[in-house]
Amino acid sequence: MEMQSQKKSVNIGGLEIGKGSPIRIESMLKTPVTDIDGCRQELKTLKLEGCELVRVAFPEMSCLQSLKALLEISEIPIMADIHFDAKLAKAALEAGCMAIRINPGNMPKGGLADVVRLAKEKKAVIRIGSNSGSLNNVQLEQAMGNKAKALFIAVQEQVKILEDMGFDDIILSSKSTSIAETINANLLVSRHFPQYPVHIGMTEAGAIPEGLIKSAAGISLLLMQGIGDTLRISLSAPASEEVRAGYALLRSLGLRKRGVEVISCPACGRRRLDVSKLVEEIRPALKDLPDGTVVAIMGCEVNGPREAMDADIGVAGTPNGVVIFKKGEVVGHLGEEEIEKIGSLFKDML
Asked: What CATH topology corresponds to 261-349?
């Protein structure tokens, strides 16, 4: 794709983002940075789920020692999230953050110049961008009320500030609570700045399930147009849920294969087993299966091997238990009293 071939790559603590790299999954700590034990546990959970970049709110200088402690213990690259205060951005870089998220337009020029000089020296990355809550009246007037265009104008202003200072290790972001505004803004951003990696997501998407639905709808439309080098599914839920959802979305689009994909029928009056219950019962065992494995859980022989023939392994309910199948071919049977063995059987079959 032409857009991808022109794109540069940026490096955050060894994590490559952009040209030639997988689409990265990120999240943000929900725990205040001052709660070191809470942050340590959250980081551990995120690492296990496969989080590749974590954003951390750095609201005031009194949090600096906590941020330093976090940088020492985190196995995931950290991006400090900063608003307005150039001194905070500089402090985060001096503490060892290899990435910061700022709005250059909200910082005094002299302070921003110091931040950019330090970022160059440290070879750090700066993420800039806009969201629907940060647009000012001038940007909206220039866009004649078109919020998507206003989001793009805000990004354009920030890019110019950094480029004029000779800095281009940049990630761009443009988010809204509106799917249409987010998509249209990112189309403009990607068209005008094809050289820069883009972070995508829906801002304030909501709780589960609404937030999942909204995020999947917006993000997938962007990804299928080749837009997006890193993403966050923002949810009013634990950060680990954001990471799991991110990988599930990429799996469903065929863009990454981390984890196991479960396909299951919705169940109906023909079902021979409780599909939803069985899915949850065998889910712990699925973590031991190779990345990219497709597992099918089907309620009856109608939805069984034939409809799920592309699955690597699966089960379908029968009058007397279940059949086990592999790539659509039946390879075994289990009686009702043996159904709890399904998880271990799957592992042995691969």
From this structure: Sulfite Reductase Hemoprotein; domain 1 (3.30.413)
Q: Is 97 annotated as a binding residue?
A: no
Task: Give residue 300's identity as a one-letter amino acid code.
Answer: C
Whole-prediction pTM value?
A: 0.91
Q: 300 among the known binding-site residues?
A: yes
d(CA 223, CA 23): 9
Based on its alpha-carbon atoms, the radius of gyration of the chain, rounded to whole angstroms, reads 23
What's the pLDDT tens digit per position in 17-73? 999 899 999 999 999 999 999 999 999 999 999 999 999 999 999 999 999 999 999
**CA-CA-CA-CA torsion for 179, 185, 187, 191, nearest 10 degrees?**
-170
CB 233 within 8 A of CB 201: yes
Give the CATH architecture of domain 2-252.
Alpha-Beta Barrel (3.20)
Q: Tell me if the bond preceding 209 is cis, omega within 30° of 0.
A: yes
Distance from C-alpha of 272 to C-alpha of 280, rounded to nearest angstrom: 17
